[in-house]
Design a protein that fits this description.
- There is one protein chain.
- By secondary structure, the protein is mainly alpha-helical.
- The protein contains 2 helices and no strands.
- The protein has one domain.
- The longest helix is centred in the N-terminal third of the chain and has 37 residues.
Length: about 80
Amino acid sequence: MDLRVLLIIEEEDVNSGTRGLTGAVLVLSSEQAFSHSMLIGFPHQIFAQTILLPFAAVSIVAGIAFLLVSLFRDQKS
């Protein structure tokens, strides 16, 4: 087998694992952002929720998307 083909195969495996890891990190960061937005006290609660809740929503969607793409790509190979 050609060396270039082996390098492409290994690169796809690494990218798939990286996608899964990225998805897991995004899901964890969304959980942290959501919990911090709920734990911040009265004077700054509204400002924190204005920033952290949208971030949590976007990062959970992106994290799940990365995890699903990673699973589907792994299933093909």
